[in-house]
Specification:
rod-shaped; transmembrane
Amino acid sequence: MSSEEFEKLHEMYRSLYDELKVIPDRVVRSQGEEKKKLIRVFDERIGEAQEVAQLQAQRTLLLQGTEVLTNASQSIERSQRIAAEIDQIGTDIIEELGEQREQLDRTRDRLVHTGENLSRSRKILRAMSRRVMTNKLLLGIIIILELAILGAVVYLKFFRR
C-alpha cells in the first residue's frame, strides 16, 4: 500500500470520524423515521470506520514486517561481507603458511647439506691430522737418524784414529 493510498484512507477515516461525532447529536434531536435513518447511517459509518481502522492496522503490520525484513536483509549483507573478509583472511593465511613451509624446507635442505659438509670436513681434518702426525714422526726419525749419522761421523773422525 503506497503513501498516497494511506493518505486517502486516513482522510476517509477522519471524515467518517467527524460525521460520527455529529450523528449522536442529530439522533437526539430527530424523531421516528429520521431517527432510524440516522441510526442506520451511523451503523454504516461505524462499519466503514472499523474497516478503515482494520486497513490501517494491516498497513501498520505490513510496514513493521517490511522494516523487519529490511533489517534482516541488512544483517544478512553484513554477515556476507564478514564471511567474505574471513574467507580472504583465510586465503592470505594459507598462502603465507605455504611460503613459510617452502622457506622451512629450503632451510632444512641447507642444514642437511651443511651437516654433510661438516662430516666431509671432519674426515678431511682427521686425515690431515694423521698425515701431520705421520710427518712429525718421520721428521723425528729423520732428525734422530741425522743426529746418529752426525754422531757417528764425529766419532769416527775425531775419536777413532
